[in-house]
Amino acid sequence: MTVNGSAPNGAGHPAGPPTAQRIAQRLRETMREFATGITVLTTGGDHTHGMTANAFGSVSLDPPLVMCCVAHSAAMHAAIGGAGHFGVSILGADQEHLARYFADRRRPRGRAQFDAVRWRRGAHTGAPLLVGSPAWLECRLAHAHEGGDHTIFVGEVLATGAEPGRDPLLFFGGDYHRVAARTA
């Protein structure tokens, strides 16, 4: 058990207060223990881009708002800011290949990165939405808040859809996982 970044009685940790670098490393290790869903964030138009992300969640139902967190260094950061919108494809257990593809920095940039996948254009934003995803959203950028080395983008939900009953793709312990089949 750890408390405030150090083990009881200092076991397993150097003497003295933890450094910012050590706390960041411990945070990374700790967050590996938190299972999250996997999404692919997309933008369309002149700023077409896609990126795998697990920092996504619901913010509010009234008004309908969601959020995603994107590193300042990511190409998606400038794409969302420039486009003023984003799409979200929530990935299913059978879509790990898409999560890996949109996380691969070697894939093509711009519209060309979508040549290798099946997608449809979002009716409200033009953002690519991945065909076969169990759920999707289209969002207008409503707010952007600085959060350290990331920006928290808050999107007003313009449209959404889901195919209930599909198993999700999860990220846990630094890798992708599938949930055991649902029981009726």
From TrEMBL:
Residues 31-178 form the Flavin reductase like domain. InterPro entries: Flavin_Rdtase-like_dom, NADH-dep_flavin_reductase, Split_barrel_FMN-bd. The keyword Oxidoreductase applies. It holds the Pfam family Flavin_Reduct. SUPFAM superfamilies: FMN-binding split barrel. Gene3D superfamilies: Electron Transport, Fmn-binding Protein, Chain A. This is Flavin reductase (DIM6/NTAB) family NADH-FMN oxidoreductase RutF. It comes from Saccharothrix australiensis.
